[in-house]
Amino acid sequence: MNPFLAIPLLALSAWPAQEAPAQEVSAQETPAPPSAAERLPGLIEAFRVEFEVPGISVAVAHAGELVFEGGFGLADVENDVAASADTVYRIASLTKQFTAAAVLRLEEQDKLKLDDDFTQYVDALDTGEHVVTIRQLLNHTSGIPNVTEIVEWRDNWEQHLAPQEVVAYVAWKEFDFEPGTKFAYNNTAYIIAGLLVEDRAGVPYAEYLETSFFEPLGLSTLQYESPGVIVPHRAHGYTRNGAVLRNADWISMTQPFSAGALLSTAEDLVRWQLALAGGEVVTPESYSRLITPTLLPDGESTGYGFGLAITEAHGELEISHSGGINGFASFLSHLPGEELVVAVLGNSDVFEPAALARRIEGLFLFPEVVALPVSEPLASKLVGRYVGEDLELSVRARDGVLRLDWAGQGVSTLLHQGAGEFRCVDDQRRRLVFDLEGDASAGVRVFFEGREVVAERQS
């Protein structure tokens, strides 16, 4: 578990309409290439098949307008129910940004301050000699032990436990570190933050989100998952045992609570992100704090604000979060500089939705990049380890897909551009040109960050 539009009106002219002169269309005229949105279905379905995901739903907004929504595969394998734009998924840790936004809304109403000790309002956990602020709950620097790392908790997933009972699993443990000194992703802290929302708002957490956010914004599918409630178009969750698809282990959704118990369609997540960034959820000042990375005492950035990660994708600022829980994985990203929002939801807990989001982003940012099939002979020629100045790469192949292990910078799928040229799917500015002479590539030229580095094959 990852710890848990408006259509513009056309201007009407006052001038009388004039018939346009007929134009001959040349038989040699080249049709316009398909747009990014038109290329999306093929890209998404190919990804779904490659990573054996039962069902995936995606929504994309560009320049403030929804430009794509759709579903692929099956929302329910046993009953052969197709996934669609209306399919509702568990979004797991994407819930955290809603909790953080709720806390900041309450601060705007002078019902709390971020630097208050949370125990002023809730007594869910005895912090002993430690002082834990609300800010530290939201930015994962509290030092409170993370309940999802505790074996005893994992043995009791199926029980309908109240939030206080979930937090109690860490009551006997020492703090992981002094609050404010380190960063460690923490579900316990966000469960406590949900209890804080209930105390300060005077209503249940689910009710506060519904009346403060979902109803006013018209987000009809966003909802808190309550036991026994019928949810139209709900996806069923799956996992894999090797190559065998099976139902995911059951978990009571009372346990993730404000750290991961929300449901949504992909479209409503995109609309939420547009509203959040547009000042409709919290003030612009509060939103700025949501997306400002926390700095540790040594000056190092955590890359995380409140319920949102602040990183880079394709060389652009990206505001995002992932979610993972039994049977489901999710990812919501926003590239503000490109006015691009992507939501990816799937009913499998063994795939990386962020990898699909990167490919979708690439379609809009680099429309000229069109991936080509990689033949088995070509793949075999390129597989190996390459070393150059301050650079070490390993290329692996599986089922005609090449993956690049860029030492120190993670693993990326390679997009074939023709001959020996490839681009990295997660940053398509990065280009690789392999030497194709002989039975095996002798080296590769790597173009990144304005540099060109030659790496030679070592094995």
In short:
The protein has helices spanning 36-50, 95-108, 134-138, 151-154, 163-167, 187-201, 205-217, 266-277, 284-290, 353-365, 376-382, and strands spanning 55-62, 65-76, 81-82, 89-90, 223-224, 238-241, 244-247, 262-264, 309-313, 316-325, 328-335, 340-346, 384-388, 391-398, 401-406, 411-418, 421-424, 427-434, 443-448, 451-457.
Corresponding CATH architecture of the largest domain: 3-Layer(aba) Sandwich
- First-last Cα distance: 35 Å
**Whole-number total of structural domains:** 2
Helix content percent band? 10-25%
CATH C-level class of the largest domain is Alpha Beta
Query: If you average the pLDDT, what whole number results?
Result: 91
Number of helices: 11
Uncertain runs: 5-27
What is the topological layout?
Blueprint: H1 36-50, E1 55-62, E2 65-76, E3 81-82, E4 89-90, H2 95-108, H3 134-138, H4 151-154, H5 163-167, H6 187-201, H7 205-217, E5 223-224, E6 238-241, E7 244-247, E8 262-264, H8 266-277, H9 284-290, E9 309-313, E10 316-325, E11 328-335, E12 340-346, H10 353-365, H11 376-382, E13 384-388, E14 391-398, E15 401-406, E16 411-418, E17 421-424, E18 427-434, E19 443-448, E20 451-457
Antiparallel strand pairs: 1-2, 1-12, 2-3, 4-8, 5-8, 6-7, 9-10, 10-11, 11-12, 13-14, 13-20, 14-15, 15-16, 16-17, 17-18, 18-19, 19-20
